[in-house]
Sequence to fold (831 residues):
Amino acid sequence: MGKMVRLVKNEMIKLVKRKSLPVMLIVTVILSVGVVLLFNFSRVAEDSSGEEYLVEEWKKEIVQLERFFAPDHYLDNAYADNSDRGRRFRNRSLMLQYLVDNGYSPYDWRYTSGIVEEMFEHKLQMDINYNYDKHKAEYDRLEGLIQADDWKTYYKGLAEQQLATYSYLYPMAEAEVLDAVWYEYNYRTEHNFRPGNERWRDELISSVASSKLSLAYFRQQEYARNTPGYINPSTGDPSMEKPELTLEQIAENRAAVLDKLAVATYRLDHNIKADIGYVFGEESVVSAGGKSVFWESFAASSEFIIVVGVLVIIIAGLIVAGEFSSGTIKFLLVSPVKRWKIVMAKYVTVLSLAVVFTLVMYLASAAASLAVFGTYGFDDSVVLVKDGVAWGVSPFLKVFGYYGWAFVEVVVVATMAFCLSSLMRSTAVSIGVGLFAYLSGTALVELLSSLGLDFGRYILFANLDLPAVMANTSIFPNQTLIEAIVIIVAHMAVFIWTAWDGFVRREI
Amino acid sequence: MQNQTTERQVILGIENLSKFFGKKQVLHNISFDTYAGEVFGFLGPNGAGKTTLIKTVVGHLMIDDGNVSICGKTLKKDFEGAMANVGGIIESPEFYKYMSGYDNLLQYARLRGVEDEARVKEVVHLVGLDNRIHDKVGKYSLGMRQRLGVAQAILHRPKLLVLDEPTNGLDPAGIKELRNILKRIAHEEDASVLVSSHLMSEMELMCDRVGVIVGGNLIDVKPIDELVSSTAMDKSDFIFETGDGAAVFALLDFIPAPGKTLHENGDVELVIPKANERELLARINREVVQAGIDLYSVSRKENKRLEDVFMELTGSEGDDQIG
Fold:
């Protein structure tokens, strides 16, 4: 064992002193950055949904509304000023102008909660002198809340209103309704989360609240289903209590809503801003919080493992054929070390460096993605859910897993190159043949696939992407994992045996 | 020099060694031993199988038949145990050019499990590379690489030192130095040194015993003095430098033809029986002078003896071998 360590150390020193190894590490970093930049260029630009864009939309709407009142409008201006339609247009125009003038963004609580809209509804009633005093009082109260930024009072009022509405609609789901309508107010006041500060949190809170309301609905539906002839006592309206869902549908929908609730609650509890499950092919249960391009980029980088494959071919070429082309093999083999130990040390060295290169690419891709796409979602987890229980998985581990699968390809290519290297006396030929086999092999299977020549599935390079084989998305249809593993293992066995035999029994 | 026949330890033992390249047999049943404390020279024309034998001894070539043992351990059964006692330079001294001589030596130290920097410095000093050892090997001359090769070979104090054509590319001073190092290792450190060469004069100065190989057959193994005298003990070899070589050659009709040669430069070489050496010399002298030919010098030919022995032993067979 100690001997093997010394042999591997020797091989490492030879590669490090050669200066090609540091250069290769730098190349790995540069190519990793290049891959990220490539990803950046190839990405379809996201349609804007930023605040500024939405404010511009408001401004456009104001202009359109005001055209109704313009002197050259085809309708009589008097009609415009005095009709109900005209008053509503004007009122909406004024409301939007109010929001714009006060700098309230489309994500501000004063817009999202509907307080401004409600205030202008009262103004509309004041304008036509309907219950003027009552509306004036309400108008003043709401304006006071808006100016004092007193969202707590307004949200409390909203909860009370909702309580009234939903108690009326779902009388048999008292507990669920209470839980649902008070959820947002209680949660926000408890943690002092002002609405409008964090969009992702606002979205999640809405999601939780609506899930809870759905549960109330299911409870009511369930009761109606289980109680023949049930009449909703609050309304007496037969349409209200006529069950819409079967018990199976209720159970199914409730399970889905409980999953959603669990995910949203987990994310709120763990401050998980972005929904990054989609990056890893997970179904998005709660899509709040937007995408994380950082993770998209980082996860995609593993598909460019060819960078490591190429470098490993070069190293494998240097490590065995290099000894023959420089003539140093004669000295290496005047040693009290059996040849199989030397060849094994070299193979171990190649594989260790393959690991190092893969890790370097992993880290460099993470750093480059961070630099190019920012930290949004960087410290978030992928939230998974099953049977209403949510848990988080580190996306770093997920990407690491991607690299792990990609490493299968690296190992196979390294072994192939090592085999070539121990058969050849020239480094250049060994590297050249290795690169040709790797690159043209990959291209060949794609060509065969596109020509519909099915025997291509038995070529090694068609079987290296094991996750794709398992997901049945590999280049030939219906490849099986067993088949792929058998093909890989068979090739590996031939490569290793050839390298071994070629080196151990070779006369020099 | 070696002590008079005290018990001598066998270092390298070769028994009935045969080697084939394809169907062609290149070594025929070779058997011999080398002992601790001696420099064993291995002589043969190009292609006689010297390098093949040496490569088989160090494990570069597989043994087809027979046995090679080093310090009692056979290559077949205990390769690592046997090779632990071997150091060598096979063909040209090639190193990792992008590393310093020192780093190269550390590679071999690690390979042999003797990572001892003091010892590395000691051998560097022994071969006289102290000043340049930290330079990259790519900048070394062939002579320096040869010395580095020796340093590498003796790093782990091997009991058997195998050197294939070690004086190749060395200047006369380097050759002398190397000779002294090898003799010291053999005689003082009690190792067995196996050297192959076709520089006969060099071998004569360096070796204690010589084995002659021709066409893959070992035809003779003898101490150097014995080898020389066995064939030439009863004869002496003289060079006559005269004013007219051709005339002298013709004049000496009383000397049998195989014993006399007329060289291109006009010198006449005579091989005459030792028994009546003095009489014959006096007679030749007299006859030459009487014939009115100038006689400049008569000299005993010493330093080419081994070469002649070699030619005599190998005959024209050597010419048939591939170069």
User: Anything to note?
Assistant: The CA atoms of residues 321 and 421 of chain A lie 5 Å apart. Residues 339-373 of chain A form the longest helix (35 residues). Strands of chain A lie at 382-386, 389-393. Chain A has three domains: 2-46+296-504, 48-149, 184-290.
